[in-house]
Structure formats: C-alpha cells, structure tokens
Design goal:
Helix content: 10-25%
Low-confidence stretches: none
Strand content: 15-25%
Structural class: alpha+beta
Mean pLDDT: 90
Distance between the termini: 35 Å
Order of helices and strands: HEEEEEH
Number of helices: 2
Number of strands: 5
Radius of gyration: 16 Å
Strand order of the largest sheet: 3-5-4
Amino acid sequence: MAAYQLAIEQGADFVEPDLVVTKDGVLIARHEPALAILNADGSVNTGNTTTNVATIAKFADRKKTVILDGTSVTGWFAEDFTLAEIKELRAIERLLLVLGNG
C-alpha cells in the first residue's frame, strides 16, 4: 500500500492494483491469488511463494489443487482465507538478489 501511496504522491499517471478476493469478500492487493505454491515433490516452491502460510499448522487443511492459468497448481489461495487470517501471515521474499564484488 505504501508503494501505491508513493506513486500517487509522485504524480503517477496510472495506478493499477491487482486485486484478489478473500473468503469473506474483501478485495486485497495481490498480483496472484496464490499465497504459497508447492513443487511436485511437496516442497515449497520458493520462486512462487510469497507468504509463510505453508509453515502454519492450523492452515495445513487449506492446501488444495486448482487450475490456475491452465496449469494444475497445489498450494494455498487467498479465496480460502478471511482478511483476518491473511493478516496473520507474513510476507517472504520469493526472489533473492545476490550482489558480488566485481
């Protein structure tokens, strides 16, 4: 939200948030509905996971397989969580940039 606010303050011509809906009908700004995605072997796909939901035992039963953009995907999805539950999650960085000397 801070990035949207900064863009507005800096006079951006357009601000286009991607929105997904929660279980209780609240729109939240997310690029994708997936909160965490699993690889075929059941491990967390770190390139497509943006929250710590896979590590929270009380949410284990929310894991499901869906067709997303034509592909079968297993993981956790925003539409299965209330806004209050989404707020319990922590963001994790899915892409790491490693800078070296030279």
